[in-house]
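Extended Data, panel c. Modelled sequence:
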Amino acid sequence: MGVAERRRLNGAAIRPTDSPRSVDSPRPTEPTLPPESPRSTDSPRSAPRSRVREFWAFARRRPAVVSRQVFTFTIGGSYVLAGVLGFIALGSAPFALRHSALLSLIAAIAVVGGGTIMLLGKVLPPSTFHMLLAIGTLLISVAIALISDFPPAAVDDGLMFLAITVACTFYFDLVSATIHVIIVEICMYFAAQFSGLYEGEIVYLQGILIFVAIAVAWLTRAATAADRDALTGLYSRRGFDVQLARAIADANRGDQALAVVVIDLDDFKSVNDLYGHGEGDRLLTAISQIWKRSVDRDQIMCRQGGDEFALILPGFTANRAAAVADELRALVLHETSFSAGVAELRADDSQSKLLGRADVAVYNAKSGGGGQTCQYGVTDDGSTSTEIYQALENGEFAVYFQPILDLASGQISGDEALIRWIHPERGLVSPLEFIPLAERSGAIHAIGRWILREACERTVAYSRQTGRPRSISVNASGHELTNPEYAGYIASVLAETGLEASSLIIEVTESTFDADHLRVLAVLRSLRELGVRIAIDDFGTGYSSLNRLDHLPVNVLKIDKSFVDAIPEAGGEVPVLRAIVAMAIALDLTIVAEGVETPRQAQVLTELGCSHAQGFYFGRPAPEHQQTAVNPIRVVGSERALRSSGTWHSPQIVA
């Protein structure tokens, strides 16, 4: 690689935001701090507004002392208890009540409904919890109104509002709880008046409810404060231990995966030493706010103390957890860098064992230079992420171009960019060796950004030199596609290199769409809006359904080499390959067949209607663009005209 290319590596090719360990310059001795907080720059008039915002955030924060399971059990138990007590009260009444049949029906509904809630509480969506309390409030109000001929029983029935009051104040945020309490007070007042209670009795009952609501709300929030970090609002170490124990129990009960990520900020001590603890606290607050907006509701984050954070990821394997750590790192690249350690739950694991392995992994990450993610028990097989970053700095990576042929014209229409590591001691290192390591360590972001820029620059230079426009296909890792800044980076590369967006094809594998990952889909849609084309690579090796493919934001389908290899040299049918091509044509997708190595394969693919192909038959990957295919082909007749007229015949392939 020449001097100019090395300069690109050390300059624009790798930008400061490319990776936690930027390769364009040594790590700065003075860490970048977040912008000054409003407290230090705003006018005195903004102080009341700031306090209002803080109070509103506090009022909307749900207490952390009660789990969803406990809440549903409490509500269901309250329903059952109210129903049973209702039956007892009806049976022990000194005389027959006028509406005893309706009251018995309400009691039966409460018992059956409460039992159902306790059984199905785990699967009920949180949005139904408000409805459950509202239904309980309505049933109690109707029961009070129906006991108008026996006021003492109405007073007793009114005490059941305590269960509603306690449930809403220990589980919901202050705003929601206050709304529920107000509704309870209003319903109780009118129901009690209809039942014939005196004003004094009504005020007495309402006063009890208000006192209980205030007491429970205060106690639960005081308990929550003990489980919350005062600076960041995240769980404290104590709260994290409680949540981790619960997550481990749930994972073991459901035989599900569970991963823990421990995060340690790099060079944080220098922030406190250079700028003071106030600036350090401001940095911790800034990044924690960013992360809180990023993690999902079922993902639990805490500040374990100092500059150390931890994250519980229910249902995540170690690989997926490492990808989440990479996402979190990408979100705060402008503020700081951090090392992360990942450990996955094993059989008979305790909290201390699981966290201990994560601590070992984060220690290995910091020992390797920081700014990376390490998984416990994952070895480097002779290569380290530090070597990868060093290789980028030294210009050891190179882009090779494999031509993609337009089968209708016989001309090269584009190339696929493939990365090669030319190690000074080990020679050519296979991507199969270092790409998985780069994905685990987080170095994949630096590699991906480098090859994207290099491929775009080289393609633009070739097109300008020859006057022949070429497209360029670049592979994207699933780790990159979960980064919300990925589309923005591609847009900046296109603007800086001058490559047309339609000339760039981002290739993703089918596995990238596992579970229809919403973040991946959002990034791909953003790329489509830019005009970038999206290709599914190695199609047929994953699990894409026709319906799923129809809804994905893709416009290029690359057929896996295994289907091309199945083409018989002596003739014969290829029904699966024919079906894939027909499906792609029906969906108006451009088709690229991979791994074409013989004239027979090229002939059959063209007969089936495949529009493009690549493989050793047309050209091997090379460090420079090929002007023509190694085995150029010529199609006799106008394929498009024949197909549109319905008289498509086999073209003649001339090698």
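The two ends are 34 Å apart (CA to CA). This feature is highlighted in the accompanying rendering.
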